[in-house]
Automatic annotation (TrEMBL):
Gene name of the record: ligD
A UniProt-annotated Pfam family: LigD_Prim-Pol
EC number: 6.5.1.1
Name of the molecule in the record: Non-homologous end-joining DNA ligase
PANTHER family: BIFUNCTIONAL NON-HOMOLOGOUS END JOINING PROTEIN LIGD
Annotated organism of origin: Paraburkholderia azotifigens
Keyword Transcription: no
GO molecular function: DNA ligase (ATP) activity
Lineage: Bacteria, Pseudomonadati, Pseudomonadota, Betaproteobacteria, Burkholderiales
Ligase among keywords: yes
Length: 254
């Protein structure tokens, strides 16, 4: 998980009394109980907001675990270029009655359309019933520009394949369809980091895999650990070298 956390502002879900009972709460800033090893950044980094936190080392990650952090959610930008995201994320959420094979097919269709725009994408489970499609970017554009692209892309997607996709939230708008959420691409929005557990019964894990999955919640803290212990290939290995420009894709889409 460490490469997916380093230098990125985080929001952490803490479960002091466990996930089965008691309060679960988000922590985004340093005001609450301090965690040794985490980096608290200057208020000047994000004016008018409390200091942002980053988890930059394995020791910091262990410290967060010791303080009952279960989920780690990250920004789409790093602290060095806070205003310029280096990824865009599409959250695929199936409607009621949706079959797993339909969301798998939807993810593949979305990747094909992105490929036609010259963009390579990575897939991971959300740790729930959905999938995240992650597109690495060169950090040249503002959050507003990247979010506008994601919104326009989702609208294009739903117009092109309306029988499969919905751009409108709400259960009644996505019966038998997959809702594609682009709102995670705004300034300060976060998404569950790759390999993060989720604070819910079963403790599913956000994992990069698609073809052999039986559901978005297939991987949990037990099965994921066993699976990863036998892997020699990092599915995210090429991701870090794919800083893709977005300007050409924006022109093609329009």
């Amino acid at each position: 998980m460490s490469p997916h956390l380093k230098d990125r502002p985080v929001a952490m879900v803490r479960a002091p009394s466990g996930i089965a009972g008691g309060e679960l709460f988000f922590q985004k800033h340093a005001e609450r109980t301090a965690m040794p090893g985490l980096t608290a950044h200057s208020r000047d980094l994000w004016p008018k907001h409390p200091p942002l936190l980053t988890v930059d080392t394995v020791d910091a990650l262990l410290s967060a675990a010791q303080m009952n952090v279960v989920e780690l959610h990250t920004w789409n930008s790093t602290v060095s270029k806070l205003d310029s995201p280096d990824r865009v994320i599409f959250d695929l959420d199936p409607g009621d009655g949706g079959k797993w094979k339909h969301i798998q097919e939807a993810a593949l269709l979305l990747r094909v359309l992105l490929s036609e725009l010259g963009l390579e994408a990575w897939l991971k489970t959300s740790g729930g019933k959905g999938l995240h499609v992650v597109v690495p970017l060169s950090s040249r554009l503002s959050y507003d520009a990247v979010k506008s692209f994601s919104q326009y892309f989702v609208r294009y997607l739903t117009k092109t394949i309306p029988e499969r996709f919905s751009a409108v939230s709400g259960a009644s708008n996505r019966v038998g369809k997959v809702y594609v959420d682009y709102l995670r691409n705004g300034m300060g929005q976060t998404t569950a980091a790759a390999f993060s557990a989720r604070a819910r019964p079963g403790m599913e894990v956000s994992m990069e895999q698609l073809t052999e999955l039986k559901s978005g919640a297939q991987w949990n803290v037990q099965t994921a650990r066993e699976y990863l212990s036998f892997q020699s290939h990092d599915p995210w290995g090429d991701y870090w070298s794919r800083a893709q420009p977005l300007a050409a894709a924006i022109k093609r889409l329009r």
